[in-house]
Amino acid sequence: MKNIGLFYSFNSIKTKQQAQKIIKGLGNGNIEEVNVEDIGNEEFMKFTNYILAVPTWFDGELPNYWDEFLPSIEEESLKGKTFALYGGGDQKGYPENFVDGIGIMADFIEKRGGKVVGFTSIEGYEFESSKALRGNQFVGLALDIENQAALTDERILNWTKMIAKEFN
Amino acid sequence: MNPDIKEIYKIKTTDKETLLKWYQLLRLGRSLDDRAPNYLKQAIGWSYHAPAAGHDAIQLAIGQVFDRNKDHLFPYYRDLQTSVSAGLTAEEIIYNGISKDTDVAGGGRHMSNHFAKPEWNIHNVSSCTGNHTLHAVGIARAIKYYKSKGVAISSQGESSVSEGYVYEAINGASKEMLPVVFVFQDNGYGISVPKKDQQANRKVAKNFEGLKNIRILYCNGKDVFDSMNAMTEAVKWAEENQKPVIVHANCVRIHSHSNSDRHELYRDKAELNYVREYDPIAKFRRLLIRYNRATEDELNQIDEHVKEVVKKAHKAGMAAPDPSPDSVHDFVYAPAYQPQKFPDGTHNETSEPKKIIEALNSTLKAEFRRNPDTFIYGQDMANKDKGGIFNVSKGMQQEFGHQRVFNAPIAEDFIMGTANGMSRFNKNIRVVVEGAEFADYFWPAMEQFVETTHEYWRTKGQYSPNVTVRLASGGYIGGGLYHSQTIEGALTTFPGVRVVYPSYADDAAGLLRTSMRSQGMTLFLEPKALYNSPKAATPIPEDFEVPFGKARIRRNGSDLTMITYGNTTHMCMDVAEKLSKEGIAECEVVDLRSLVPLDKETILESVKKTSRVLVVHEDKVFGGFGGEVSAYISEHAFKFLDAPVMRVGAEFTPVGFNRILEAAILPNTEKIENAAREILTF
After folding, report:
1. Which SUPFAM superfamilies does the entry link to (chain A) (predicted)?
2. CATH 3.40.50.970: does it fit domain B16-321?
3. Rounded Cα distance, B138 and B145, in Å
4. Where are chain A's structural domains?
5. CA–CA dist B297, B638 (Å, integer)
6. Residues B435 and B442: beta-carbon distance below 8 Å
7. With contact defined as beta carbons under 8 Å apart, do B554 and B573 qualify?
8. How high is the mean pLDDT of chain A?
9. Do A58 and B12 touch (CB under 8 A)?
10. CATH number assigned to the domain with residue range B552-680, chosen from the 4 options 1.10.10.60, 3.40.50.920, 3.40.50.620, 1.20.910.10
11. Cα→Cα distances B641→B275, B600, B629, Å
């Protein structure tokens, strides 16, 4: 079995492109791509290490596919598992809820015993508030292709180097 | 998944019966919502329809947490699903949609898609979006005062929060710490206007985060469980803590704003697609299936059942009676108090004369002693020994306490709107408000004033706002543009409000008593220049009463009728005396006392007697109330006239501050005398 599960919506072109860059950045073949729109609990739980793509929808919400899947995760069931989160946001259009989705997901995981890794600096971003904030860091990788597309590759590369060390 | 909110309802643990009930309600609401445009296409009705699709989850939650035995619900015009969830039947929705006599909101009198059932505390609200926030605050004040259970729930779109009165309402609820739940259903648009054009914060509830005593909850209004949990928490917290809550619910608007809007003109295809993808009912159905809480068959059976329910309701709607054209004059005015001791509003009292200010003060106190459910508030109403700027309410707070006699914020619409709301709590309540410190400042309250005039008629007699609006009116005090206005010319144009304007202390007492004992709204205009005038002082019998619509002949005469009210009654009396002393004419002075209803009988009788009429009032001649009196006489008593009906009033200008300007603008005895002499030449 592959060691890392990379969960994202296969229907989302932008997220898919970012997923491919992450795979390339991690540089190994130990990653299994999973379409989050089709998963069941069993398929999700089989991994130890996770990379979850969590874009932010509307004014700070999870996409339906995550929202509808998460109730399947039982209390305490994520103990011993490690999660790295990334997601897109729009810091100019939605400065009050920039990458909230990552923060909502991180809260959910931590509440159920999972470990979240791959925090990144907020330097270089301009926004008003975010549920993804942990002090001066995001609780994952914040991508903004609406306003900072040119920085995406570098951000992904740096982040993959960081999380590669965190995964068992 | 909101850390501030206890997760009571979850897909895996909520009992199946409840889940299926919700699904059925959602499907029923959506079916009716989807069907509404067909009635317009077939020219049957429902010409105003603001679709609820996309707001379904939060609306389901509002209706489910509402308990008609203790709560009060103020739905807005997009709240079809809320109304279904709160218990309205498919028939009742359709009766309202196609404006049938059987419509429980008000027999087809109000616009379609304005669902209500006053009998169940689901209130009939205005089309002025968000204005019912003030009514919710008013009734919450009563809930708190009477230590009743329950809360007021007010629902609106996020764009209507831009209205000033919404801020007044929430500020008032925060200050008074009232059990109100304000729900903002945020679909991103006010008709075609995106919310970035409405306010700086994308979530408008953030605008209120600086207020004290208020809790703000944010939820996903497209998600049944998040909405149910947020609304449950909101209602529970508001009731337990006796403080307000705002629930900001993110929704999507799947369709256009209404049937007069075309959203494809301002929303691109991508947006139209994703709002459909986020359909709350589709999501709920997926969850039910995914977590094995219901089978496809079970849900399909519910869908089929709903189809039958809607079909049956449609048939009932088509067979229901239309309102009768003969009924249009029903329920314009709620029943007035009929004076018992002084049925015609006259007396033979000979005791020491009292001034108008004493008359008002003593009558207010007497009525407050008589009815413990009486309240008075306004600006600068009471602070220790000060009882209002003119001392009308002096001593009342000391005698009746701060909960019955209190100051309001400087927010006229708030004063007027919360009076309307408070009066809804029970039929014994009588609210007296000083609508503004001076009548001149009443204009900001006009929106609520107009709204209140509609209530009784719009609900087909189900609700009468029992409110007396007192306003210190008129000039002759050197007050300039904003301390001299007398505004009856505008305010008598609204059916549904009685308007009285006494000239003497006894009538002031009698009309105030009648107003405070009546159902419905009375506008009580007080000529403030006469408050302390010895001229207006009269003996006043105990418990004096003056019926509405009964003029008083203050001086008998045979040559000329002067029809007047307020300040100018005394001028007419002076002119009449002068002309009598000079042997020129005997003038009859008719003091109208009530403008609405108008005592047409006394007017006609006097005209028959004198054949000459001079209408005198302080307000402007052009557009003034005298035009209505004059036209009535011309139409109904032309054959008795020997001269044209003439009018004396203010110039068609504002009232200037300089005394020279004021004198040139307002009517006076000289102008009245000149006009009287001219009429007498015919």
Report:
1. Flavoproteins
2. yes
3. 11
4. 4-166
5. 78
6. yes
7. yes
8. 94
9. no
10. 3.40.50.920
11. 70, 16, 14
Residues of B in contact with A94 (CB under 8 A): 202
> A64 to chain B: which residues are within 8 Å by CB?
277-278, 283
Q: pLDDT by residue (tens digit) across B491-540?
A: 999 999 999 999 999 999 999 999 999 999 999 999 999 999 999 999 99
Q: Could you say which of B110, B483, B570, B617 is catalytic?
A: B483
* pLDDT interval class at A168 (50, 70, 90): low
d(CA B604, CA B637): 7
Question: Is B263 an active-site residue?
Answer: no
* CATH H-level superfamily of B356-536: Thiamin diphosphate (ThDP)-binding fold, Pyr/PP domains (3.40.50.970)
Question: Looking at residue A3, what is its pLDDT?
Answer: 84
pLDDT at position B1 over 70: no
Distance CA B106, CA B565 (A): 36
Across B35-110, where does the E strand assignment appear? 72-74
Residue A1 has pLDDT above 50, yes or no: no
Cα distances from B76 to residues B46, B128, B301, in angstroms, run 16, 10, 31
Residue B502 preceded by cis peptide, ω within 30: no
B492 within 8 A of B624, measured Cβ to Cβ: no
Q: What is the 3-state secondary structure (H, E, C) of B583-618?
A: CCCCEEEEECCEEECCCHHHHHHHHHHHCCEEEEEE
Q: Where are the domains of chain B?
A: 16-321, 356-536, 552-680
**Residue B477: Cβ-neighbour burial (10 angstroms; 0-12, 13-18, 19+):** middle
Query: B12: nearest CA in chain A?
Result: A71
Tell me the per-residue pLDDT of A76-107, one tens digit each, with 9 for 90 and over: 999 999 999 999 999 999 999 999 999 999 99
Give the pLDDT score at A27. Answer: 83
Computed on alpha carbons and rounded to an integer, the radius of gyration of chain A in Å comes to 14
Look at B12 and A97 and tell me if their CB atoms are within 8 Å: no
Chain B residue numbers with beta carbons less than 8 Å from the beta carbon of A108 are: 1
- Look up the CATH architecture of domain A4-166: 3-Layer(aba) Sandwich (3.40)
The DSSP 8-state label assigned to residue B122 in this structure reads B
Beta-bridge partner residues of B185 = B157, B249
* CA of residue B364 relative to chain centroid, distance: 23
Is some CB atom of chain B closer than 8 A to the CB atom of A66?
no
Nearest CA among B438, B424, B433 for reference residue B404: B433
How far CA B582 is from CA of B614, B670, B676, B681, in Å, comes to 19, 15, 13, 15
Domains B356-536 and B552-680 equal at CATH topology level: yes
